[in-house]
Amino acid sequence: MRYSIFSLAAQTLAGHRGWKPAWRDAAPKAEYDVLIIGGGGHGLATAHYLASRHGITNVAVIEKGYIGSGNVGRNTTIIRSNYLLPGNTPFYEHSLKLWEGLEQDINYNAMVSQRGVLNLYHSDAQRDAYARRGNAMRLAGVDADLLDREQVRAMVPFLNYETGRFPIQGGLLQKRGGSVRHDAVAWGYARAADQRGVDIVQNCEVTGLTIANGRITGVETSRGPIRAKKVALAVAGNSSRLAAMAGMRLPIETHVLQAFVSEGLKPVIDNVVTYGAGHFYISQSDKGGLVFGGDIDGYNSYAQRGNLPVIEDVMESAMGLWPGLGRIRMLRHWGGVMDMSMDGSPIIDHTPVDGLYLNAGWCYGGFKATPASGFCFAHLIARDEPHPVATAFRLDRFATGRVIDEKGAGAQPNLH
Ligand SMILES: Cc1cc2nc3c(=O)[nH]c(=O)nc-3n(C[C@H](O)[C@H](O)[C@H](O)COP(=O)(O)OP(=O)(O)OC[C@H]3O[C@@H](n4cnc5c(N)ncnc54)[C@H](O)[C@@H]3O)c2cc1C
């Protein structure tokens, strides 16, 4: 069923009784050409691009929970391509371009909203760093505007400009950045892949990888063994666990990241705003809730829940930036498990096991990457060579020293 104004009108006249489930609840077959582990944004996008761009449709996405139960349904929905380093900029810009055409491509309303992402600066040194970043972006064909304090004040007048511990001096704006409804991304990719014949298998946990003579031959799951010619890992915060099943130790640590949403308010903030003097960012959802977050919890965990010290830390930054927030009520908070790589950049690569591919290390920036990640991972799996915009995301860079340390923070997950 194709979604359109005509299908909506027809269903309206029929009392909305004819809508079909968005995807089949497939049972696993005995064998696939490609088996993708992880039904998050990246796994589902990979399946869609394998089927739609490479004609490979004997594909299964194996998800241990339900579609959208991982980080794809837990993130704060920000998309942007304001990166500095050559290894990152073309990839994230490719992703932003795919976001711009996504709804037509997958015939699904993902509520892509290019409302602008504004990174605030609070010192001369930070302004210089943002000017450099903005110049690098423009040289790479990415939009960027450096704003002074009065330009920022005209956009977001209610922030604390003068009396905060770190007064706002200005900001770097990417107008094409914004937000996308995250669960719609999962549902839209699942539906698009399913329509081309991909099996979306939910409630099926991969418990082992079957390897013979250095080559992957299939997986063990909670619903029995499945054979596969190629297996692709896209399990985000569980990457180290799955890689360990193949005897691999990844340069990745898993940490919790929390997010928060307030009660619904009338429209109050049009853009995504990030605080430059602490780790805090905020936007407003289409339902009216203020959506915000901050730093990762400072310990390793695979539990999708966080702890109180980071909540206090995030609220302190919130009050420092926007004191009026003290008068709103919190509705919910939650956590997700992040695959923090040691240089803050992702991995899209082969592994030492023939036929086993790895997509991991997204830290807390993987939602914006979803389309390009799936696009480039599908390219790698189908052609056995990296896509031109993802050549830097190699697993061996931690051995060769060719790391992509966007923030110059070294191997410290809490600073990425
Ligand atoms: C609170 C929070 C805020 C964030 N905010 C942003 C943001 O604003 N912008 C941004 O760009 N990024 C953000 N991120 C990061 C982003 O959400 C992730 O980097 C991205 O979603 C990871 O890729 P994914 O969607 O494929 O992951 P997931 O949705 O986590 O998918 C992985 C899937 O693998 C499944 N799985 C794991 N083990 C197995 C197994 N053994 N067998 C079968 N299936 C398995 C899991 O159940 C899960 O569904 C945020 C993350 C969090 C938690």
How does this model look, in words?
Residues 33-379 form the FAD dependent oxidoreductase domain. InterPro entries: FAD-dep_OxRdtase, FAD/NAD-bd_sf, SoxB. One of its GO terms (molecular function) is nucleotide binding. It holds the Pfam family DAO. There is one protein chain. Helix content is 28%, strand content 26%. Helix 2 runs parallel beside helix 6, helix 2 (41-54) packs across helix 9 (370-383) and helix 3 crosses helix 9 (370-383). It is of the alpha/beta class. The two termini are 42 Å apart. It contains 10 helices and 18 strands. The longest helix is centred in the first third of the chain and has 18 residues, at 89-106. Strand 1 (31-37), helix 2 (41-54) and strand 2 form a beta-alpha-beta unit. The chain has helices at residues 5-13, 41-54, 89-106, 124-139, 149-155, 182-195, 239-244, 308-321, 370-383, 397-400; strands at residues 31-37, 59-62, 78-79, 117-121, 145-148, 170-174, 178-179, 199-201, 206-212, 215-221, 226-233, 252-264, 272-275, 280-284, 289-300, 330-341, 347-350, 356-360. Strands 1, 2, 8, 9, 10, 11, 17 and 18 form an 8-stranded mixed β-sheet that branches. Strands 5-6-4-13-14-15-12-16 form an 8-stranded mixed β-sheet. It is globular and about 65 Å long. It has 2 domains: 5-81 and 84-107 and 182-251 and 343-399, 3-Layer(bba) Sandwich (FAD/NAD(P)-binding domain), CATH 3.50.50.60; 114-177 and 254-341, D-Amino Acid Oxidase, subunit A, domain 2 (D-Amino Acid Oxidase, Chain A, domain 2, 2-Layer Sandwich), CATH 3.30.9.10. Bound molecules: flavin-adenine dinucleotide. Flavin-adenine dinucleotide binds at residues 37-43, 62-65, 69-72, 74-78, 205-206, 234-238, 242, 257-259, 293, 336, 338, 362, 364-368.
